[in-house]
Amino acid sequence: MFVKTLSALSLSLFALACSANEADIQKTVEARLGVKVESVTKSGYFGLYEIYADGHLFYTDDKVSALLIGGDMIRSQQALNLIDLKSNRNVTEERLRKLTAIKFSDLPLERAVKQVRGDGKRVLATFEDPNCGYCKRLAKDIQKLDNVTVYTFLYPILSEDSLKKSRQIWCSADRAKAWNDWIIDGKTPGGRDNCDTSAITRNLEFGRRLNITGTPTIVFADGERVPGAVPLNVLEQKLAQPK
């Protein structure tokens, strides 16, 4: 809904002005966009305020006279980037990483397909659709990791077939084997799909609350959320960092 609203508004100006008060800014933005604003914070740049809503970051002034969303933000959350030239830091990226972080201990790990390699001390979680091409690429790199525990949340958002395959995998006696047989070797999961698959439904509900809109989405032990398949060296670097 938020993206559609932004598409309609594009870079249009707000007519209503308000004082430089974060609560007032929040009320005005919510009224204009029809979305719940999670936070309003001074950005520290150009007198702009940072607005975080529905998984997106954008900026406005103290009078809410204009909304800075970036030309391609409708298609990508990363289109608008505020860069600190003194430190060469991507401020928007840093803030999004912090604001979208997921506390690893809050993940319902009992609803994930669990795989342990080596001592299993390093951990990561993924949200994946069985028909996602990038998930298949990620799976091949995950196979090369050692001393790691991987929790895969079946997250069928692409098609009805994705839901059927997810159910068949969840109903398998060996879920990890059924997942790897399909995602790596292309062996279509067989067997029944009519066991208790409420875990998949609850995964979908959980992911929507977290605004997980694409697969794969990776969650590391420190809570950082990374959309998309990242290369093996990035996985290793993140897994090597302290929690």
Main attributes of the structure:
five-stranded mixed sheet; Glutaredoxin; 11 strands; 243 residues; 8 helices; 33% helix; alpha+beta; disordered N terminus; four-stranded antiparallel sheet
Give a short summary of the structure.
The chain is of the alpha+beta class. The chain is built from eight helices and eleven strands.
Could you describe the 3D structure shown?
- Keywords: Disulfide bond, Periplasm, Redox-active center, Signal.
- Residues 1-22 form the signal peptide.
- Residues 19-78 form the Disulphide bond isomerase DsbC/G N-terminal domain.
- Residues 117-239 form the Thioredoxin-like fold domain.
- This protein folds into two domains: 2-99, no CATH class; 104-240, 3-Layer(aba) Sandwich (Glutaredoxin).
- Helices cover 33% and strands 20% of the residues.
- The protein contains eight helices and eleven strands.
- A five-stranded mixed sheet has the order 7-9-8-10-11, sandwiched between helices. The protein has a four-stranded antiparallel sheet with strand order 1-2-3-4.
- Helix 5 (160-171) runs antiparallel to helix 6 (175-183).
- The longest helix is centred in the N-terminal third of the chain and has 12 residues, at 22-33.
- 27% of the residues are buried.
- Residues 1-19 and 71-78 have low confidence and may be disordered.
